[in-house]
Specification:
It is a single chain. It is built from 16 helices and 18 strands. By secondary structure, it is of the alpha/beta class. The protein has two domains: 258 residues, TIM Barrel (Alpha-Beta Barrel), CATH 3.20.20.70; 83 residues, Arc Repressor Mutant, subunit A (Orthogonal Bundle). The strands form four sheets. A nine-stranded mixed β-sheet has the order 10-11-9-8-7-6-5-2-12. It has a four-stranded antiparallel β-sheet with strand order 1-15-14-13. It has a three-stranded antiparallel β-sheet with strand order 16-18-17. Helix 2 packs parallel to helix 3, helix 2 packs across helix 9 and helix 7 runs parallel beside helix 8. The longest helix has 21 residues. It starts with 24 loop residues before the first strand and ends in a 5-residue tail after the last helix.
Length: 437
């Protein structure tokens, strides 16, 4: 029996996508028409990025700025419309399978701006009333008018960042939020018919105790959310929290295991290391079959990424406010013809396409389909990725009767180590040499 893979640190990094955005680079312009010519376009994912918030949390390294001028938001939406029109004309998407609107905080938009946003979606051919549609929000930016509009226009999943139900912890996270605001916001949301309410929580906050984490989990469950995402605190460069004292004991492992035990006992099924979903939840819409491993994604807006089989692309990425604002201004200054070409991203040769399929599959409850892998790439999975055998040998993964490879419960606990462990040396080097601004 081989020795166990060395996962000394359970928290290496969140492999939510592959390749990581820090592997993107400036490139020779590629025609959008040429790029999408041979792509499957009948089950696309539409992601729209609104890089605006009412506050910038201390832990946040997302592409967003706080409290922009309203003229900037209006100008951004005008450019978003131009980009959508170009995509409709050049890519000619056939149908969308899912929609997600994120940021930033999309509910930072005022009502006329929200109405324009939905008209942009529909002009592109994405109808929220017909397909699963998710919308991100924050406690301070919602009101009855906005929630009623989202409900009536087909949004069936709303996700709200809570992080903690204790004022002291949100303060430590650099998030000026009061628990009273949170409770009022959640009670308000529950007055509307959204199929899924998701709450985001963070563990590993400075000074957080198991008892305090247990309290936040209990409070979250008391609102009966259909989904709960739990995120370990990662201290990122150029974020506000990076300046805080980091000598506190790291309790993230204990806190994660506490949450897993509590949530599964409360009727939630673990879908990934972060996502817990009520076992009784069923989609209210008949969704088209969408595979994040194989189907494309169209991103609208500065900071939004788009995926084809051979190339991932986006605008440039930054964390510092001045650099984000510069990228947004560059985006706003574009015209329709500027969106006909792609000049920032990363090409995916076959070896990286294989690796993406493996990483996106193994870290999720849907599992890694070895037969599908073989039909796509012509090779045996364990021949291409022999290190996966270590997961099987050490009971971090199992192979079921249909030849799907699943992480075991213990394997899921090491997702943030397994994901980066599977990155190629080429992608690791690009990430390490990325200049963060």
């Amino acid at each position: 029996m081989n020795s166990k893979p060395v996962f000394n640190n359970r928290f290496e990094g969140y492999a939510y996508s592959y390749p990581h955005k820090h592997s993107y680079r400036r490139m020779e312009p590629v025609s959008l028409e040429q790029l999408w010519a041979s792509e499957k376009k009948d089950a696309l994912f539409l992601y729209i990025h609104l890089p605006f918030c009412e506050m910038r949390c201390g832990f946040c390294n997302l592409f967003t700025i706080a409290n922009p001028q309203e003229t900037i938001v209006d100008a951004y939406l005008n450019t978003l419309q131009q980009q959508a029109e170009t995509i409709r004309r050049v890519i000619k998407p056939e149908s969308f399978a899912q929609i997600a609107v994120g940021g930033g905080t999309p509910t930072f938009l005022e009502m006329p701006q929200l109405e324009k946003l939905f008209s942009i979606m529909r002009a592109l051919g994405a109808e929220p009333k017909d397909i699963p549609a998710s919308f991100e929000m924050s406690p301070k930016t919602i009101n009855p008018q906005k929630l009623k509009f989202l409900e009536e226009n087909g949004v069936d999943r709303v996700s709200i960042g809570i992080q903690s139900f204790l004022d002291g912890e949100t303060k430590a996270l650099g998030r000026p939020q009061k628990n009273k605001e949170v409770e009022e916001a959640l009670n308000l949301i529950r007055q509307y018919r959204f199929n899924t309410l998701n709450l985001d929580l963070i563990y590993g906050t400075y000074g957080q105790t198991p008892a305090a984490w247990q309290y936040s989990l209990e409070q979250a469950v008391s609102f009966h959310p259909e989904e709960i995402f739990i995120y370990p605190l990662y201290v990122r460069a150029l974020t506000g929290i990076n300046k805080l004292d980091q000598n506190a004991q790291d309790l993230r492992e204990d806190l994660y295991l506490l949450a897993k035990k509590f949530l599964t006992s409360a009727g939630y099924e673990q879908i990934s290391m972060r996502l817990f979903r009520l076992k009784t939840v069923r989609s209210s819409k008949a969704a088209l079959s969408y595979s994040c491993q194989e189907d494309g994604m169209i991103g609208l807006g500065a900071g939004a990424r788009s995926y084809t089989k051979h190339l991932h692309y986006s605008s440039e990425y930054a964390v510092a406010r001045g650099n984000i604002k510069h990228i947004i201004n560059e985006y706003i200054a574009k015209n329709s013809s500027d969106f006909e070409f792609v000049d920032y991203g990363i090409e995916l040769p076959v070896e990286e396409q294989k690796r993406r399929f493996v990483i996106k599959s193994i870290l999720h409850a849907s599992a890694l389909d070895t037969r599908r892998y073989e039909s796509l790439y012509g090779n045996k999975l364990l021949s291409d990725f022999p290190q996966l055998g270590l997961l099987l040998e050490n009971q971090l993964a199992v192979m079921d009767e249909s030849q799907k490879m699943h992480l075991t419960s213990q394997g899921t606990d090491y997702s943030d180590a397994i994901g980066p462990w599977l990155y190629s040396p080429y992608i690791k080097e690009l990430i390490q040499t990325f200049e963060l601004k």
